[in-house]
Design a protein that fits this description.
It contains 8 helices and 13 strands. It is an alpha+beta fold. It has a single domain, classed as T-fold. The strands form 3 sheets. A 7-stranded antiparallel sheet has the order 2-3-7-8-11-12-13. Strand 5 and strand 6 form a beta hairpin. The longest helix is centred in the N-terminal third of the chain and has 19 residues. It is globular. The two termini are about 20 Å apart.
């Protein structure tokens, strides 16, 4: 989950890290040294990003990927005043939306249903309320939270190929809990369409194609895991981690950035949740929602979907 919205909230901490060094060789693979990788590091959706790939035309492929990231920021960014998302939030409607916006919002509707409303990107009015209140020195009062909650509910987002609109004035979206994963998926699709079979894309959430040059799986570590913990092997899949207290509204670090769309309060039943899925957008959104759900609800969601798996769950008191 991307912990970014309006500027009073502290910057997003990184919970996943790429692990260097060779992995175990895959059976029958033609091993090449890990040093064969070409790496790009930069920024995507306001956070640190990287791409690692092994290809003789790596520079061109990375340039294509960077152009795609910039194009998608023009659709999903809350920071760019000319983005599709900013115009939708400002005007209450968006005519002729980018196909990617329609696709992502359709995925959001599916994931909201799957999580019983724990994932809902219409929480942006709550973000604004909490950020402004804490910037002034205190939590928002109950009446203000109740007013903001009247603007929350993804059922009030009207979506079709020609128009996206809000049913109520004052509604707004944040896609910070899913867009980073979606961007990783789109970059992976672009590289695959160019014939690339092996790459690791990190846009805040991680999407792996194929294997490392040495034939082993890509390896991802958890930044807050105990010393010596084994990295997670990732092959043709995505991995996302969310942590409610990874970014906070308050200086004391108690009002976490993941807001419960059902109550309007900063939520968090877990210190961190890590999810793997075929698509990074799915892993991103589910890890966000699972932070607000108990163990039974998480298990029920995963049993019903069967397209994701809980990798790591850390209790608040751990």
């Amino acid at each position: 989950m991307s912990a970014r919205s309006i500027g009073h909230v502290a910057g997003r901490r990184r919970f996943l890290r790429i692990v260097a060094g060779a992995g175990a060789l895959a059976a029958g693979a033609a091993a090449r040294p890990a040093s064969a990788l070409t790496r790009w590091r930069g920024v995507a959706m306001g956070a640190g990003a990287s791409i690692a790939l092994d290809h003789p035309d790596a520079a061109r492929l990375i340039a294509l990927a960077r152009a795609e990231i910039d194009r998608l920021e023009g659709v999903f960014s809350l920071y760019r005043a000319d983005s599709d998302l900013s115009r939708l939030n400002r005007d209450g409607r968006l005519d002729g939306p980018a196909p990617e916006m329609v696709a992502l919002l359709s995925l959001c509707a599916d994931l909201r249903r799957a999580t019983g409303g724990a994932f809902d990107p219409t929480v942006q009015p709550l973000w604004a309320l909490h950020a402004q209140a804490y910037a002034a020195g205190a939590a928002p009062d109950a009446a203000a939270v109740a007013r903001a909650l009247r603007l929350v509910g993804f059922g009030g987002v009207l979506i079709d190929a020609g128009r996206i609109a809000f049913a109520r004035p004052g509604m707004a979206l944040t896609l910070n809990g899913v867009a980073q994963g979606f961007v990783a998926d789109r970059v992976a699709a672009l590289l695959a369409a160019e014939g690339l079979t092996d790459a690791l894309i990190d846009t805040g959430e991680i999407r792996a194609l194929g294997v490392r040059p040495d034939g082993g799986p890509w390896r991802v570590g958890f930044a807050e895991a105990p010393s010596g913990a084994a990295p997670y092997p990732l092959r043709e899949a995505a991995l996302a981690t969310s942590a409610p207290l990874g970014s906070c509204f308050d200086a004391a670090g108690r009002a976490g950035h993941i807001l419960d769309p059902r109550t309007g309060a900063p939520g968090g039943r877990w210190r961190s949740i890590s999810v793997t899925a075929p698509r990074a957008a799915t892993a991103d959104a589910l890890s966000t929602a699972f932070c607000l759900m108990d163990a039974g609800a998480i298990a029920a969601t995963l049993a019903a979907r069967r397209d994701a798996r809980l990798v790591r769950r850390v209790a608040l008191d751990a």
